[in-house]
């Protein structure tokens, strides 16, 4: 039986006390945090208005011939939120829950994420509202190629560079790259990242997001004076991010006591054998049936008495309904938007040290940047070099955010938004307004 990892949410009173905000709405959550950081930065009104609006929102219809001869029409989206610092960068997801509002929020998050780690990209996101699990490989390929053709005018190494996201992978990126290359008349590997290594992908890219989570978790432990050895960790989500983070934290000496996916959550106070769990998941594509631990609910996993909680699955899993029950000292947000804006103050009051998503999971986009650089230069790096440069960027970015948090006496999330917005705003001031 599938485990619902999301926590119910509800409406909250808005900042003007007369409006009600949907706690689960990702764009409203992003904007609440943006507004707080912009106020602290004393951002001028004109720039505030510019940064509050996406540059481009594209909605396309995608007719697909199914294997049985029937035609189905899907809706696809691509949002470029801000490209002042460089080409738009952001994943493409295939999921029934994809909406324009969600994609716009994620594109904004990508803008701030790229700025936090100071790489020369803007933010974008894309998606198709579909159920990829119900589609054959040939149907997925036809849909991907038609979607690519529909948004091709915005794509390009200098304009918009997609990457994998929810329910997309290296194979999907290969289809996008091939479709784009056929349209422009020559092979263009730098149009997407997260590709197979054989066609211009970067070594270390698959592990990058989980590795980044491990790096900033260690930095947080050092900041708080907590030893890495024996630190207890609970990880929600056992896909690419969660499983890699679990393995790397385990290798660093942490004790991973809980893991979970959509099918099952497992707790073992003595520590889970992560290599064994990964091998099981590789064979079965699920944790369902994994025998080496006690079965717990998804909500119980979030409130375990552990040192580090790493939500690496879905958005909106820590809300006003359960934030007061969180017992972890550190939350490392491996997923995008796992904590609602309304829950932030509850975690602050409980003195929970939150490493926000736009910093914690920026390892993926950082190595995507490395891949783009390698493709454009036609020279590829060793995995050790990729990992060393990723570590440098993640450690420096963590310290940049921590310094700002101390200076302004704010939490890490607000400091990360302040750092990102200030970097984007600075470029806008330098470039001016084209008229």
Write the layout of secondary structure elements.
Elements lengths: L10 E3 L6 E3 L3 H16 L3 H7 L4 E10 L5 E12 L5 E7 L5 H17 L5 E8 L7 H14 L9 E5 L5 H15 L23 H16 L8 E5 L3 H12 L3 E6 L4 E3 L6 H11 L9 E3 L1 H5 L5 E4 L18 E3 L8 H9 L3 E3 L1 H4 L2 H15 L5 H26 L3 H20 L4
Parallel strand pairs: 5-6, 5-7, 8-9, 8-12, 12-13, 13-14
Antiparallel strand pairs: 1-2, 3-4, 4-6, 9-10, 10-11
Helix pairs in contact: 1-3, 1-14, 3-14, 4-5, 6-7, 6-12, 6-13, 12-13, 13-14
**First CA to last CA: what distance?**
58 Å
Query: DSSP strand (E) fraction?
Result: 15-25%
Determine and state the CATH class of the domain at 208-360. Answer: Alpha Beta
Largest β-sheet summary? 7 strands, mixed
Radius of gyration: 21 Å
Average pLDDT number: 93
- Give the number of DSSP strands: 14
Outline: globular
If classified by CATH, what would the architecture of the domain at 208-360 be? 3-Layer(aba) Sandwich
Structural class given helices, strands, pairing?
A: alpha/beta
Alpha plus pi helix count: 14
CATH superfamily of the domain at 208-360: NAD(P)-binding Rossmann-like Domain
Adjacency order of strands in the biggest sheet: 11-10-9-8-12-13-14
CATH T-level fold name of the domain at 208-360: Rossmann fold
Helix content: 40-55%
């Amino acid at each position: 039986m599938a485990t619902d990892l999301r926590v119910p949410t509800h409406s909250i009173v808005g900042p003007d006390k007369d409006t009600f905000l949907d706690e689960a709405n990702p764009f409203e959550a992003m904007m609440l945090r943006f507004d707080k950081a912009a106020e602290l930065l004393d951002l001028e009104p004109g720039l505030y208005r510019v940064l509050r609006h996406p540059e481009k929102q594209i909605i396309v219809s995608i007719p697909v011939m199914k294997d049985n001869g029937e035609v189905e029409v899907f809706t696809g989206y691509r949002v470029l939120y801000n490209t002042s610092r460089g080409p738009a960068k952001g994943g493409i997801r295939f999921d029934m829950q994809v909406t324009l509002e969600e994609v716009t929020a994620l594109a904004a998050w990508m803008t701030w994420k790229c700025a936090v780690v100071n790489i020369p990209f803007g933010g974008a996101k894309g998606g198709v509202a579909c159920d990829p699990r119900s589609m054959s490989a040939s149907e997925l390929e036809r849909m991907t190629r038609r979607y690519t053709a529909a948004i091709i005018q915005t794509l390009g190494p200098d304009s918009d560079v997609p990457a994998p996201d929810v329910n997309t992978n290296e194979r999907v990126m290969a289809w996008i790259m091939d479709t784009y290359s056929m349209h422009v008349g020559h092979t263009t590997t730098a149009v997407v990242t997260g590709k197979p290594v054989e066609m211009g992908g970067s070594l270390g890219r698959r592990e990058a997001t989980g590795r980044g989570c491990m790096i900033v978790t260690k930095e947080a432990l050092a900041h708080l004076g907590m030893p890495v050895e024996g630190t207890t960790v609970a990880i929600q989500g056992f896909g690419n991010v969660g499983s890699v983070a679990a393995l790397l934290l385990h290798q660093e000496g942490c004790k991973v006591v809980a893991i979970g996916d959509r099918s099952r959550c497992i707790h073992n106070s003595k520590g889970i054998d992560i290599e064994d769990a990964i091998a099981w998941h590789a064979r079965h594509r699920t944790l369902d049936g994994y025998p080496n631990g006690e079965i717990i609910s998804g909500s119980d996993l979030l409130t375990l008495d552990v040192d580090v909680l790493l939500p690496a699955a879905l958005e909106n899993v820590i809300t006003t309904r359960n934030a007061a029950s969180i017992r972890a000292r550190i939350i490392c947000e491996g997923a995008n938007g796992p904590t609602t804006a309304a829950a932030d103050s509850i975690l602050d009051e409980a003195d929970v040290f939150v490493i926000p998503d736009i910093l914690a999971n920026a390892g993926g986009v950082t190595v995507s940047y490395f891949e783009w650089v390698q493709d454009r230069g036609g020279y590829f790096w060793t995995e050790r070099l990729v990992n060393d440069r990723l570590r440098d960027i993640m450690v420096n970015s963590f310290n940049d955010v921590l310094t700002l948090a101390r200076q302004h006496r704010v939490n890490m999330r607000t400091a990360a938004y302040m750092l990102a917005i200030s970097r984007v705003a600075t470029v806008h001031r330098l470039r001016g307004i084209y008229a």
